[in-house]
């Protein structure tokens, strides 16, 4: 397994946002993390990224224990991420944003610039390279976050709602990009609300509800699972939905 | 290539300036402008590029100034020999105060820097060895050239210009390399920078150490030139605020911003001091307040940004 999380618990005071979740990601996987609002998937995601420390449980990456590793250590080991609300370096140009990521593997400026040019070309951001990050709209920012993450040359990319808030046309372009990222040999874990994305992209879907994993399987099997349906709609809702 | 020529021409013009101006008063103001530009450019490394707005840099300036007068008073050495001592003390202070305060963000970091510097100021005010509230004096008459006591302010002017050129050269090299981009990324977002593998606290510390070194050197040069230091004149909050305002006025996080800010603010301050005499120190606060208001209202990026905006407009015009 490339990434393995066991018995992850994350408490905020008495509240357990993540309550004993497990996840195993094999090299080459595309995993979709789904679940209703407040299910704990974003908290779980931030634990995986090293942004917040787990209260209990262990995480290993490529056989190495990374439970207590910092975000910068994650990047060094080859785990990159995007943010739910894009956090670009606003006053820097698009190319400079990517360059910051490229410096991780290429401390010299010339090599970092060459790597940056390749990533900008790959993500289709090359025409916007000299514009400031603040001039980009939401789709551009999300794309820039992916580009910046790719520049760190990761083995695993964690995408936190990288497609939320996009129009259907933009979603299709983003799905296309994610496919090409995967074709580069990068393993993906995607948190996503949009079912279409999970159904078209993910090899496996993992469903969160009240801090626990309630289903884990192929996307089609998971959406047909009664436990998943009731978690999304609520038991009383499904009863009320019956014809009167 | 053209930019390098412009910069070389600018420095030649700066070096020639005191030869063109006969009045000793203006030559002295010129030296003070360059001294202020050194400390503001040093502040700019951590406060501008890395965006960690220290309002306590007087502690390093004061360490440099006191070190120069201490080696004279205790050991009888020429004041300039205090530079390494001042830098060593500053590096120690920067490490001890920087590591815990880098956890703080935004205003909280600024307030912590004010607090630590005020604490040091109060300690020095009550420390007999350092002259307590009265302060320390340098040599009254030069014993040798090494004391660097000159009646001609132009000599200080050229010494300061050399130090400023060295500092700006280092800043330029840093700006172009990995460290420059890492600091700007930290300024943009700690969290995003860390996610890209930037060791945030380590690079903040590097920037602070380099910044403290040159701020301390500026303090030593001040001690050498003025030959006097007391807690208010080198450790007071106004000393810290002045560095922030000069850098912000010219453009924080830009190479020449602090120099531009110093060229504008220091003569303005000297003019108000001259106009109002001894009672003019209160006016300094008024000037600083007005500058803060104007920057915040009209040009948060400082004058350097205004220059870039104008250059873009000129280029766009046919």
Description of the structure:
The complex is a heterodimer of chains A (about 240) and B (about 325). Chain A has about 240 residues and is α/β, with parallel strands linked by helices. Chain A has a domain of about 170 residues: Rossmann fold, CATH 3.40.50.300. Chain A has ten helices and ten strands. In chain A, the strands form two sheets. In chain A, strands 6-7-8-3-9-10 form a six-stranded mixed β-sheet, with helices on both faces. The relative contact order of chain A is 0.17. Chain B has one domain. Chain B contains 14 helices and two strands, in the order H-H-H-H-H-E-H-H-H-H-E-H-H-H-H-H. Chain B has a two-stranded antiparallel ribbon. Chain B starts with a helix and ends with a helix. The interface between A and B is medium-sized, with 30 and 20 residues.
The number of distinct β-strands of chain A equals 10
- Helix and strand element order of chain B: HHHHHEHHHHEHHHHH
H/E element sequence of chain A:
EEEHEEHEHHHEHEHEEHHH
Give me the Rg of chain B, rounded: 19 Å
Instruction: Identify the CATH architecture of the domain at 3-84 and 154-240 in chain A.
Output: 3-Layer(aba) Sandwich
Mean pLDDT across the residues of chain A is 91
Quaternary structure classification:
heterodimer
CATH class of the domain at 3-84 and 154-240 in chain A: Alpha Beta
Give the total of beta strands of chain B.
2
How confident overall, as mean pLDDT of chain B? 91
